[in-house]
Structure formats: C-alpha cells, structure tokens
Amino acid sequence: MHEKQTGSLPYWQFESWPNGRLHHAVFTRQGGVGYPPFATLNLSVSVPDDKETVYANRRLAYGLLGRDTHTVVHAHLVHGNGVAVVTQADNGTWTQADGLLTNEPGCALTMNFADCVPIFLFDPVQQVIGLGHAGWQGTIKDLPGAMVQQMIATFGSRSGDLLAGIGPCIGVCCYEVDEPVISQVRERFGRVEGLLVGQEGKARPHLDLVRANQLNLEQAGVDHIETSGLCTACRTDLFFSHRAEKGHTGRFGAVMMIPIGE
Ligand SMILES: [Zn+2]
What we know:
Elements lengths: L1 E5 L2 E5 L9 E5 L23 H12 L11 E3 L6 E3 L8 E3 L2 E4 L6 E5 L3 E7 L4 E7 L1 H5 L2 H13 L7 E4 L14 H9 L6 E2 L8 E2 L1 H11 L4 E4 L24 E6 L5
Parallel strand pairs: 4-6, 5-7, 11-14
Antiparallel strand pairs: 1-2, 2-3, 3-15, 7-10, 8-15, 9-10, 9-11, 12-13
Bound molecules: zinc ion.
C-alpha cells in the first residue's frame, strides 16, 4: 500500500490496483476533528465518542467519494462469515454481515476497524467489489472464501480474475493469542509453518492473521493478493488499535466504490 492525501485527509491505497476504475481507501486516525482517545478520525458510533464529532469525521472521510453517512452502505459486524449483496437501496442502513458485495456503480461500501483484518476484493472483468472484516473468528470461519464463493455464485466471477487486498491489521509481531484461538486455528489450517509463532510453554504464540487470510484467499483460488505491511498495534500514530490501546480507542474506516460513468 502507499499513502496518499486529498486536502488534509491522508489515506492508503493498494499500489497494484487500477485506481481509475475503482475508488478505494483505508483511512488512518489522522485528518479528523476528534479528541483523545478517539483522536482524530474515529468513524464509529459504537465507541463512546461524541456523535456529532463522528458525523463530522464521516463527512470528511466519505466526502472523498462524494458521499455522506446516509449515502454509504454500512455493515453491522458480527464476527461471522455472512456475506450480503447490496445496492444503493441499502444506503444509510446497517446490513448485518461481515462481507459486503456490489456491482452497482455509485454504491459505496464501508466498514470500521481497530486491529481486525480489512479484506478488499475487486473483479475487474465482471466489475464487482467486496469489502470484508475478519478478526480471528472471521478468519477461522473463512470469511474471505465465503466472499469469493458469493462473487462466483451471484456475479459469475472467476476466482483467477480477482484482485485481493489485505489492509492494515494487528501484525504477528503484536497478536499474542491463547486458547481457544490456538486450537481453532489448528483445526482450520492444520500445522502450517509460520501461522502460530512462538514456543509453547515459554512465550504464548502469536497469530499471523495476514498469512491466515492469504491462505483463505489462496484456497478460494485467488492468487493476486497485496498486503499492507502495516501493523495497527505498532502504528498507533497512524491507526486505532483495540489491543495496543486496551479498548479505549476509536475505529478507522475503509471504503470502496465503483465510480459512476467509468
Ligand atoms: Zn506490531
């Protein structure tokens, strides 16, 4: 990913993606109007930040796509593998799913994050986009695979055509895990090298969520995958991190939209 800036608003984009035919961004915590511990670009009303501040931040962030809080599709995240196909008729609603898909130009998808893994999918052939949220639970339940299967079933996508992006999330450097996470990772992925790092009995293992979701995508037939290389817990200057900030923090946003008339 590389950092871009429009006005005073910084955001990150996947370098290998065709940006003319697709609008996408991962916002940081910078460029907003909020105060600690939500400074400054918190986009979530599910944390105890001032609501008017959050709406002001949403106008700034979604304004990048020419949208506001009522003209984007939000997701009510439930740590599952449910995938919803949406249109602009769903604007302003909170669709209960951890994966959103659309092929409608002008339909803007958004989700909020603080350590969980942002999953971006783009089918440049069928012109379909997908945005997903995978914490450890969504990773084990293979949310990325469920998104790919739904793209194939609904839009006739071919997995080999898809571009995938894995956004900033908590890295293996910072994501110490315990039971029942460890046994469920083993159940889902077997004993894959590098997935759980650290010697048992000494230090508790660390889970590599990026690698796990690369495996999910590869098993679904996707081989064009760009990763961000950014750890939210190491970079609390750039991102909100639930783990590093012990829950007292905001949520940064991700957005995606096929532009109208291109
Ligand atoms: Zn880290």
